[in-house]
Amino acid sequence: MLDRNLKNLCRDNKVKSRRIKHIALLAVFFLVICLCRGCCNALFVSYQEIHTSPQGTNTVIVEYDYVCRPYVYKKTWFGKRHIWTYPGGGFMESVSFSVEWLSEDEIRMIYDDLDDEYDEEFIITIL
Fold it and tell me: What dihedral angle (degrees, nearest 10) is formed by the CA atoms of 107, 113, 119, 121?
């Protein structure tokens, strides 16, 4: 009788330790994924700007890579969704595009060159 209770107790402890190992493994996996996402941002993004629509229904993130090409993302509840990429090459100097909201679902990105030689304007629809 005592031997049977001891075996049941050992079996219950093994089941609990397996569950704890599985939970710990899932937690470590989740932390590694979060760390990788953060490192990718640090490696590939020079700086970013966050713009919220006038009524607050949409938020766009404008990220610049290390040659100042802008990428536009829509902020979602879990991350971000790619919307637009600058069609040209990069820039030799640090540039910044201004963002102007035309409506809740449309923005205008403007690059204003100091010499007015290379001014650019893009209208982007947020889906």
Answer: -10
The answer to whether the beta carbons of residues 52 and 59 sit under 8 Å apart is: yes
Q: Using CA atoms, how far apart are residues 1 and 54, in angstroms rounded to an integer?
A: 74
Burial of 114 (0-12, 13-18, 19+ CB in 10 A): exposed
- List, for residues 34-55, the tens digit of each pLDDT value: 777 667 666 777 788 999 999 9
Q: pTM value?
A: 0.70
Long-range contacts of 94-98 (CB under 8 A, 24+ apart): 94/68, 95/68, 96/49, 96/64, 97/62, 97/70
Best CA proximity match to 97, nearest among 73, 71, 58, 125:
71
Among 108, 105, 103, CA closest to 119: 108
Q: Cite the DSSP H helix spans in the chain.
A: 2-44
Q: Which residues pair with 81 in a beta bridge?
A: 74
Residue 13: exposure state from Cβ atoms within 10 A (0-12, 13-18, ≥19): exposed
